[in-house]
Amino acid sequence: MSTLIKPAIPESDASAESLRKPLSTVTMLFYGAGQTGGQIFRDAPAALLPVFMATMLGVSPWLAGIVVLIPKLWLIICDPLMGIISDRMKPLHSRRPFMVIGGISTSVLFIGLFAFSGFASQWWAALCVGVIFFAASTAFSAFSVPYLAVASELSADPHERTKLLAFRMIFMVLGVILGFGLAQPLVFALGGDAAAWLKMALLFGLIGMISMLITAYGVPRDFGANNSANQSLSLLAQFRHARENKPFAILTAAYFIQSIAQASGYAVVGFVFIYAVGDINLLLPFILVMASGSISSQPLWLKLSRRIGKVASFWGACLLWMAVTITWLWVGNGQDVLLSLPFLGELSTDHSMVLLRAFIIGITNSGFSLLSFSLLTDTINRQKQQRGYADEGLFSGIFSAVEKLAFALGPLLAGVVMSYTGFEASVGGAVEQTDGAIQGMVMSYSVVPTVMMFFSLLVFTQYKKSLQANT
């Protein structure tokens, strides 16, 4: 069973009493809402930009991967610094100004990513998209880092924080449905041209802005007022304390590798459904079924984390995810008719298996994602207990930075595999690909993520030992 961390006692009795109370449903709803917009933007570079650049701008997959990667390298510095600044400004201004400015700027720049086409060469296209994405990534840092820090500040109860993050997970699923499931089919439905991509961006940019502002203005301003970072510490000292928190370091390393696994799959899912599954219209049902698995399984993961512990539950979710992900090697676009469903019509055996995978993936993905962030809040509160003050922004910034870097490396890894296996970039829409190129897409969606998840679990084997060593 995972070790639970005793909540740190804030300096103020009033604050201590507030942190011990159960969180209201309204607070959890307001907090969770922001993840819809956050998820739309997180999924954009991983799932939408590679397809947009490869089929509309004529950019080779490997170059598109580099375009996504370079701004993310900046976030290795930007996210932790954004966290430190928000920690130090919180006593005077709260984290709200960061989330407001970041939410609005991110949404406007998201639209800009898909607003231009007709470049003279793939190099100009890559440069222009890269500059916009660099600015958008910086803006998103201003929202996402303080947003993640809030989860560690709203409650001192580790199980209450898990419940809060379960609400976040539900809104994350909504963001996946929109940005990952609806965006690409909507583009096709609108004609698949440059105007269609822009209309999609306008719609989802507006949705993202509204959701992020709901969180910015919905969560309390004054929570955890006496848990602010030690203002006398230098930046180097704060980073050193984060590095010395071994459970945090191990959890972050494991999460980084897992995020690369997820991002590799996100980058090629559109290609897989176009070419390997043979039906892009099945992508939305796939996402909806996956979403139903994610949402319906939240009570299961909350119950398991209490009964057998967060660590054991995390292991179970990861192993089952690996088992189902590797089965994509056998995906096909069979022509038989296995069953007929309302709204979906006749489904082949292969397509029915795609939807079955979706449900299991939804359950397992939501499990290890929820528990990763719940364990993060535990490591932050462990630091509060040991040091007597909090660096929620710094810890959240580091965790956020490695996630964003991973979601840049994933598309780059997938792009290299696709380019190596013969994928042909195009201008104006998808074109026919060779069997080798299609196999490269499938490998990037099955073998690569499974192998990466395996290595992440090798790292995570040291987590329990680090808890004992860090006591």
What does it look like?
It is a single chain. With 471 residues, the protein is an all-alpha fold. The protein has one domain (24-220, 235-469): Up-down Bundle (Growth Hormone, Chain: A), CATH 1.20.1250. 77% of the residues lie in helices and 1% in strands. It is built from 17 helices and two strands. It has helices spanning 13-20, 25-56, 61-93, 96-113, 122-153, 158-189, 194-218, 235-244, 246-276, 283-296, 298-307, 310-325, 349-387, 392-420, 435-445, 447-460, 463-469, and strands at 339-341, 345-347. Strands 1-2 form a two-stranded antiparallel sheet. The model is unreliable at 1-17 (pLDDT under 50).
Key words describing this protein structure:
single chain; 471 residues; mainly alpha; Growth Hormone, Chain: A; two-stranded antiparallel ribbon; 77% helix; globular
Helix/sheet category: mainly alpha
Percentage beta strand: under 5%
Indicate the CATH class.
Mainly Alpha
The CATH topology corresponds to Growth Hormone, Chain: A
How much helical structure, as a percent, in the residues? over 70%
CATH architecture: Up-down Bundle
Q: Report the order of strands and helices.
A: HHHHHHHHHHHHEEHHHHH
Identify the CATH homologous superfamily. Answer: MFS general substrate transporter like domains
Main sheet, how many strands, which sense, barrel? 2 strands, antiparallel
| Number of separate strands | 2
